From TrEMBL:
This is Transposase. GO terms for biological process: DNA integration; DNA transposition. Signal peptide: none annotated. Residues 1-70 form the Transposase Tc1-like domain. It comes from Pogonophryne albipinna. One of its GO terms (molecular function) is DNA binding. The lineage of its organism: Eukaryota, Metazoa, Chordata, Craniata, Vertebrata. Residues 79-230 form the Tc1-like transposase DDE domain. It comes from the Eukaryota.
Length: 244
């Protein structure tokens, strides 16, 4: 019963199982439940957060993967990846735990769908390539198209030069409306930037997400107490992340 229940609903807690079994006339402890599930190859893990995907998003992501399946490693080394993220001053986002088998962390039952909204105390724009980090910028006001163009104008080319990118390097950003607006596309065309075509609702395909996680873990460990300290610590920790 225990294994069958968590296989059907991985978010079932040990407390839920204890109560279900008691109602069925069987008294067990949480430790017994844990041991039973481990013997079946199941362990309690934090549910992965993944984008909320519609069928059209799934097809676009599959198309993107197939188009780039045979790209040589050198092509990816010539990409500058970019993104914005928000970092909270206090606490961490809540997580949910699930019972899952090894290598099943991305099964839909074991994940928490997310969308690109939510709170945060400061917004950052950053970029990087296979050679290391580019610039990291704290966005002081609500970002609009004009501000985004200014950020790229002031920071993208300097980052490319600092990273010693080869001729014909490729710029990646997602499909945020600020990024795909007609004025933005025209500006990129005039600047002769080659832009990687990106599938919608695919932040998890961007390797910069791993860099954001690294940054957030390092910042959380230092426990900034105010916005000024949070910004300073973000810049310090970003610079300290090794290129490897």
């Amino acid at each position: 019963m225990i294994t069958r229940t968590v296989s059907k609903n991985p978010r079932t807690t040990r407390g839920d199982l204890v109560n279900d079994l008691q109602r069925a006339g069987t008294k067990v402890t949480k430790a017994t439940i844990s041991n039973t599930l481990r013997r079946q190859g199941l362990k309690s893990c934090s549910a992965r957060r993944v984008p909320l995907l519609k069928p059209v998003h799934v097809q676009a992501r599959l198309k993107f993967a197939r188009e780039h399946l045979d790209d040589p490693e050198e092509d990816w080394e010539n990409v500058i990846w970019s993104d914005e993220t928000k970092i909270e001053l206090f606490g961490k986002n809540s997580t949910r735990r699930v019972w899952r088998r090894k290598n099943a962390e991305l099964h839909p039952k074991n994940t928490i769908p997310t969308v690109k909204h939510g709170g945060g105390n400061i917004m950052l724009w950053g970029c990087f390539s296979a050679k290391g980090q580019g610039r990291l910028i704290c966005v002081k006001e609500r970002m609009n198209g004009a501000m985004y163009r200014e950020i790229l104008s002031d920071n993208l080319l300097p980052s490319a030069r600092a990273l010693k990118m080869k001729r014909g390097w490729v710029f990646q950003h997602d499909n945020d409306p600020k990024h795909t607006a007609r004025a933005m596309k025209e500006w990129l065309r005039k600047k002769h930037f080659k832009v990687l075509k990106w599938p919608s609702q695919s932040p998890d395909l961007n390797p910069i997400e791993n860099l954001w996680r690294e940054l957030k873990v390092c910042v959380a460990q230092r426990q900034p107490q105010n916005i000024t300290a949070l910004e300073e610590i973000c810049m310090e920790e970003w610079a300290k992340i090794p290129a490897t």
